């Protein structure tokens, strides 16, 4: 108990206004008056990819798996638990999948034949279950064609593993023709692993399609929208941009499986369901039930970016499938449709309502343009084939939309032959922004805080588009979002910020994962069917993103940048809007460090705020049981004249904020 009390006192005294007489301090100087460069509004953003059940089963709040019976196994996700009445296998009913060839986007529906009135059932398992909350309301919808009025009622219930009913409603199908029906009902208790049971009263045949279930309380209360708790975590980051839809999901294992944005817009029931390229990618976590319904499509991505105040950054296929898989290439003479997709997307986002694609956006409910400023060509392709295709895209896009910034790629790694070739060729082409990806050890991130110190200030600009420290190794299923990874990323981020003249965009990856359906670790946000939490890495990102400032200023020790000397990393900005100076400090040492920070060139207030992230052990993580084990604490600091005296705990990230007078 005594040790715990001492520990708490030490933590609360993290920021000291005076030093112990015997303590030796390090002096840092912050030149508040001189701006080195502007911090771009896009400096810190988020990168969304449909991996780890991040879309269907995650951000997209649909609770029914395989709602339109379009999976490769058409009844995957559905069960018929009560089909036998007699010992001789006489069935109370059957479910058969019918395919209508002329409807090529959603060709299948389910034909249910009820043999007698004993209660034939269909049960949907959801995405590793359905998370329902007591008294929360849920909206169910379906399409039905009731042959000759045979089925009198469709009873819809939440059930638990013991078949206990946890909420109920019903629909009366009234037409022989296809008609949409809706109903709403409340859950009677909270359950993470509920299922939806559909029972039929009557005898005869009924056809069903697009059986859908959403919580009523979605983000911005949009009907059939996004999961509120997850979007809130994104909104709280105040991201400068939203990159979507990936990632390797853009490329596809084959070109046929690439992400095609035009298939993801329009009426939801007319969007084509396709297999997700991550469903069998990793032997350690196969997910044969992982598909893309595209209920979360490009319109919804643009809308989400708008909602969270982020600039949209869509990434499109450049005619190259994943080079780690098939490396399939579209011939150069057949590249035009891919290029046209990019031009049409810009029109979809920005065109007036009188334009062909602008009118599509308007009909979907958004007459106002989405103000697209950037577009990505390819994900992490490499080699001469990529450069040849990039040239074609660049010429076409700039020819029609000269103000659109094009993001190009440097391959899957931050060094090596592929990277060196790509950077050399893209620089020759005067590429505007090059996307670099880094997945490596925590040590690599600490050692590479100076990576951009010697990059050419004339260009190209850099997008640190995917990065995350790997606690075990790249693609290892044992990677954890532990504290060492998080503060090591923070150390690296001080280097990104110090080089804001070169680095214009940054984003952690992957963004999120379902705790029971992930393929890749680590991930910034974890969720189950009921809850979501931010990792230690999330809180690092939030500290930097919400304190990005508008102007980079110098913070030095004896005239040199603070880049890891004595395991200390630092960057500093000022914010012209809030009239603040903000200092970010990372102590990667196992020992506390005493600092004296001298503010020069401008007067600052005599007190300020320090926000700190730290944890006792390098392996500590947040969890559903302890979601804020590693989360920010805030305290006040008082200055002596122009000097702030601060004590950094071992392995800590601190942000000092002071008003400028």
Considering the chains and any ligands shown, give keywords for the structure.
disordered N terminus; 18% helix; EC 3.2.1.55; eleven-stranded mixed β-sheet; 661 residues; alpha+beta; non-reducing end alpha-L-arabinofuranosidase; eight-stranded parallel β-sheet; alpha-L-arabinofuranosidase activity; signal; Immunoglobulin-like; 11 helices; Jelly Rolls; 32% strand; 3 domains; TIM Barrel
Describe the fold and architecture.
The structure is a single chain. With 661 residues, the protein is of the alpha+beta class. It has three domains: 13-39 and 551-660, Immunoglobulin-like (Sandwich), CATH 2.60.40; 46-61 and 218-545, Glycosidases (TIM Barrel); 78-215, Jelly Rolls (Sandwich). The chain is built from eleven helices and 35 strands. Strands 1, 2, 27, 28, 29, 30, 31, 32, 33, 34 and 35 form an eleven-stranded mixed beta sheet that branches. The longest helix is centred in the middle third of the chain and has 17 residues, at 384-400. Mean pLDDT is 94; it is low at 1-23 and 84-90.
